[in-house]
Amino acid sequence: MRSFYKITAIIAACLLVLGVLISGVAFACGVSSQAVNGVIRLGPYIQIPVGWGHNDWYWDWDGAWHGGRDDEADGYHYDSGRGTSVPQTPASGTVVSQEGTQMQDNSGIRKIEVELGGGSFEVVRGDSFRVEITGLPADKVYSGFDGDEWKVEAPHGKTSLNMYRNVRGTVTIPEDCIPEELKIEIGAGELTVEGLTATRSAELSVGAGTLTVTGCTLANVEMDCGMGELVFDGVLTGRGSIDCGMGNVTVTTRGRAEDYGTTVECGMGNVEFNGLRWAAVGNGTANAGAVNYFDIECGMGNVEFYIREE
């Protein structure tokens, strides 16, 4: 872990502890944890509007906060007086189903990209490209072809913070589709992926959620875990990387131990690579000449890498 990230992680930990202490003092002094009409009152003079619990605020998926009641084009009407949202498009119980028919030759798909937010999802094999989502309006689910690429995005576009209620979905990829590139991303939800193959490169990313990948064969994979959990059980080959912030990454790959090596940069977390361990600002290498090699960076989290010989 580079020194910049080490310092950042230490500062974040200190601020977290300080925040907990201040919150404890505040509650001890009688501060209420509930907001009334979108406002938390600290004594008779201080009033704090609560954006996270107030529907005057929404998150724009392009990375910007917005306020006010003039943004109804995304399918939701905001009533700040009641703090509720009324869907103008299909209700939250509606199943949004999209099936790909543009491409008949599945071998022509070179890249697959799946980006999902909050909710419970699975990516499975089947007989066609198909997306079934329950709990999101139809205009918040996108799937489509762009040449030799197929992309799925849910939610798509502007996203209300109270939108993630009982969101569930299944993304189906044909059995005979073996892409060169694969990108799987989950935000604060849960995602399971089964039986996929990527022959050239792959990206697995999880924010504050859980990503479980089983029975997959991936080449040159990049794994990124923020504050969530990433579990992989399959076959990894080539040159890869694992970047873990404050979460947990567990990797189990089939192969021979002598064919796997690593370079480790460990901050305040822990790294275990097939029996070798690093912790508390420790760096090292193992089996530097291996044909399959992984760069592992761990901040305050935990990384475990196992090689199962068959």
Structure in words:
This protein has 310 residues and is mostly beta strands. Helix content is 8%, strand content 50%. Strands 7, 9, 10, 13, 15, 16, 18, 20, 22, 24, 25 and 28 form a twelve-stranded mixed beta sheet that branches. A hairpin with a 3-residue loop joins strand 3 and strand 4. Residues 1-5, 50-95 and 100-104 have low confidence and may be disordered. Keywords: Signal.
Describe the secondary structure blueprint for this structure:
Blueprint: H1 3-28, E1 39-42, E2 46-49, E3 57-60, E4 64-67, E5 76-79, E6 84-87, E7 95-99, E8 111-116, E9 120-126, E10 130-134, E11 142-146, E12 149-154, E13 168-174, E14 181-186, E15 190-194, E16 197-198, E17 201-206, E18 210-219, E19 221-225, E20 229-237, E21 239-244, E22 248-254, E23 260-266, E24 270-273, E25 276-279, E26 282-286, E27 292-298, E28 302-308
Organism: Anaerofilum hominis
Protein name: Adhesin domain-containing protein
Keywords: Signal
